[in-house]
Amino acid sequence: MAESPVDPAETTHAAVSDQTVSALLGAIARKSPAPGGGAVASAAGALAAALAGMVLAYSVGKKSLAQHAEAHERLTERAEQAGRRLLELADADAEAYAHMNALQRLDAGDERREAELPAAVQRCVDVPLEVQSACLALLVDFEQLAPIANAWLLSDLKIAAILAEAALRASACNVAVNVPALRQNVGGAPAAAAERASDEACDRGARLLRSIESRIDA
Length: 218
Description:
The chain is built from 6 helices and no strands. The protein has helices at residues 21-29, 37-57, 69-104, 111-145, 154-185, 188-217. The longest helix has 36 residues, at 69-104.
């Protein structure tokens, strides 16, 4: 029996950046396909960027770190950009999954389903891959920041790094769960490339986190 089309109410949601924390938690917890794990992963990455911003705010202008002013300015700008982008990706993930979910619930052979599903599935893989890239960039910056940050804020930087690496690994779950649909609707080569890129991102993220922790804990 063909599945019934998705209820439009289940595919709409307010932008992550427009919600209070309590409203976002409620939206995530309700019986709805989105926002879900992908949006949560992206939001965690945005939190990591914001926390790094606080570390930088307490490092900028500190006399003992004056020689690092240029690096602090550059890293502050990058953290702000990353935070904004990760919030955008949180919404993009929710929208992509809701679109794919709606298409998959149409009758097999439906013209709209046949026409739109390959691109929709590809989008559901591309977004978490981009989240991984953003989180990797954050971790690279955190590694640079660790030795030039206000020493009193290093525990916060460590938390930011843990969050960024967790968001990266969480996004790998979203790649993996959509790879079978990608293989079926787009092809084996794109599916294999996505799996490989995700695995490599996770490996590099783990190495970066270990490096950051060693610098902070030394």
